[in-house]
């Protein structure tokens, strides 16, 4: 540990990922050796030394085949473009995730259905009305922000079109986002009808997680529909992070000769995004207390469902989830289950 045998090798001799030893990153000498290696590579390959840090990161996580790919590019403009592409990859996260799951040896002692479930049919009428009115009041007071997850790929839909913005075959010919928008308009009317208020427009924070491929198309739908009656300043579009796809050896897979294969990080990226962009701080300043997170794929979803919000607020749980009972346990829909006493979503 801590001794880098690559130092006295030429670039051609270190092109195999298996030649990279385990380095002790608690020692300063390791970083000095990485710097020397990156200097050697940039000099031999005609790469600007401003990318020494990038080369060091690639070497440190053993993704040397990317440097080999770079070596094969003769055109300087294309080489610079590929370097910029490589510079956008979070190698450390990819490496950490790979080794985490490689070393994970969890024994599934007990798998059971989720507990602490409240069935809607068991809620008494008086309690139902109380939850509903409480939820409407929370919306009126701008205590709940809506998060719409729309950053994933079309895994269960036609890959050639954006599932959230196109005609999906309904008689109304509405897109998924148009359906969600109209539901929000109905919600606005409910707030007016059921609560005495002097405000002239009911609006609240809406955050939409999108990706680099569907960004403009989704934003266009909202703009063409005048943001469904909401203030444009209250609709925030957030771009989901991308991570490269790796093989079973942990190597990043190339999509083309000039581009790594990348996919959106997944729904969990919303947590990192709202914290890294200081969205949470801004919401707290505006006195928001809750986030209602919904998926764009769910046509039955009720965005900011007053009944659900009132129930969640009354029970004071950190996290609440609303779901439907499965009729067929063999279908492909997500399931809430307990594994070793912890709640998971089975995919």
TrEMBL record:
Coiled-coil zones: none
Q: Which Gene3D superfamilies match?
A: Spore Coat Polysaccharide Biosynthesis Protein SpsA, Chain A
Q: Which UniProt keywords apply?
A: Nucleotidyltransferase, Transferase
Catalysed reaction, written as an equation: N-acetyl-alpha-D-glucosamine 1-phosphate + UTP + H(+) = UDP-N-acetyl-alpha-D-glucosamine + diphosphate
Query: What Gene Ontology molecular function terms does this protein carry?
Result: UDP-N-acetylglucosamine diphosphorylase activity
* EC number(s) stated in the UniProt entry for this protein: 2.7.7.23
Pathways per UniProt: Nucleotide-sugar biosynthesis; UDP-N-acetyl-alpha-D-glucosamine biosynthesis; UDP-N-acetyl-alpha-D-glucosamine from N-acetyl-alpha-D-glucosamine 1-phosphate: step 1/1
> One Pfam annotation, family name?
UDPGP
Gene Ontology biological process terms, A to Z: UDP-N-acetylglucosamine biosynthetic process
- Which PANTHER family does the protein's record reference? LD24639P, UDP- GLUCOSE PYROPHOSPHORYLASE
What's this protein's family per the entry? Answer: Belongs to the UDPGP type 1 family.
Protein's recorded name? UDP-N-acetylglucosamine diphosphorylase
Organism of derivation: Ichthyophthirius multifiliis (White spot disease agent)
């Amino acid at each position: 540990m801590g001794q880098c045998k690559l130092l006295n090798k030429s670039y051609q001799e270190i092109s195999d990922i298996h030649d990279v030893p385990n380095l002790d990153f608690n020692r300063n000498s390791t970083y000095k050796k990485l710097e020397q290696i990156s200097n050697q590579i940039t000099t031999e390959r005609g790469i600007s030394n401003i990318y020494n840090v990038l080369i060091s990161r690639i070497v440190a996580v053993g993704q040397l085949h990317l440097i080999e790919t770079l070596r094969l590019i003769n055109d300087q403009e294309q080489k610079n473009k590929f370097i910029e592409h490589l510079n956008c990859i979070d190698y450390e996260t990819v490496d950490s995730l790979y080794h985490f799951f490689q070393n994970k040896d969890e024994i599934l002692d007990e798998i059971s259905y989720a507990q602490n479930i409240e069935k809607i049919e068991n809620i008494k009428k008086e309690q139902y009305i109380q939850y509903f009115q409480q939820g409407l009041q929370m919306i009126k007071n701008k205590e709940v922000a809506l998060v719409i997850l729309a950053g994933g790929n079309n895994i269960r839909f036609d890959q050639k079109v954006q599932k959230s913005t196109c005609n999906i075959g309904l008689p109304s010919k509405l897109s998924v986002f148009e359906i969600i928008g109209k539901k929000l308009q109905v919600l606005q009317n409910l707030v007016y009808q059921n609560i005495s208020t002097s405000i002239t427009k009911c609006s609240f924070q809406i955050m939409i997680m999108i990706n680099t491929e569907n960004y403009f198309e989704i934003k266009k739908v909202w703009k063409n529909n005048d943001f469904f009656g909401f203030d444009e300043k209250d609709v925030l579009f957030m771009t989901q992070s991308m991570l490269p796809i790796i093989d079973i050896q942990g190597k990043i897979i190339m999509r083309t000769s000039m581009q790594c294969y990348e996919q959106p990080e997944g729904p969990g990226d919303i947590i990192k995004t709202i914290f890294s962009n200081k969205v949470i701080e801004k919401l707290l300043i505006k006195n928001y207390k809750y986030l209602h997170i919904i998926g764009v794929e769910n046509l039955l979803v009720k965005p900011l469902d007053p009944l659900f919000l009132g129930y969640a607020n009354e029970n004071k749980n950190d996290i609440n989830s609303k779901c439907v009972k499965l009729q067929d346990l063999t279908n492909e829909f997500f399931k809430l289950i307990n594994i070793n006493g912890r709640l998971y979503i089975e995919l």
